[in-house]
């Protein structure tokens, strides 16, 4: 099992990244909370890995913080939560915010996460309320705005990433266009779109 990788970041296109470890490129899927904090391409990076193996496939999920990997694993123990929903949870809010929502029984906030309905949110609260006490303390992420005009590719990448988090194509594009500003990268557009969706 792969638990951690250290190598050179050679590709980053939400929600995917590739880390080159001694000439071998490991492709990982990551939540936006990890994508936001990745270094520039060509820089060394260390990621904690969740290695998921099924009968016919192998998937690797990467996280910059062990606490995020722990949450990713914990939420999948709840009936109705798979890897896609777990990534959406980590992409839409910080670990600290999610833990607070669960512990306070905030159904309204939890059901705004793509793929999480009322019954699933109730199960999250029931099964995780007493298990998330040690998951707080995640540092807030700041937006990195690049001084370039918005490119169609940035909107496209944001739309694709939002679709992979569970939003329908038309909704994903609408969300991205509604928040995109001059100079925004795909990562910045995605973050603002998710924040806006969670506030609505």
Please characterize this protein's 3D structure.
The chain has 200 residues and is of the alpha+beta class. It has three domains: 4-63, Beta Barrel (OB fold (Dihydrolipoamide Acetyltransferase, E2P)); 66-135, DNA polymerase, domain 1 (Orthogonal Bundle), CATH 1.10.150.20; 152-199, Helicase, Ruva Protein, domain 3 (Orthogonal Bundle), CATH 1.10.8. It contains nine helices and five strands. The chain has helices at residues 32-37, 66-75, 83-92, 95-104, 107-110, 118-128, 152-164, 169-179, 186-199, and strands at 4-13, 16-21, 24-29, 44-53, 58-63. Strands 3-2-1-4-5 form a five-stranded antiparallel sheet. α2 packs across α3 (83-92), α4 (95-104) crosses α6 and α8 packs across α9. The protein is globular, with a radius of gyration of 16 Å.
Give the secondary structure arrangement, pairings included.
Blueprint: E1 4-13, E2 16-21, E3 24-29, H1 32-37, E4 44-53, E5 58-63, H2 66-75, H3 83-92, H4 95-104, H5 107-110, H6 118-128, H7 152-164, H8 169-179, H9 186-199
Antiparallel strand pairs: 1-2, 1-4, 2-3, 4-5
Helix pairs in contact: 2-3, 4-6, 7-8, 7-9, 8-9
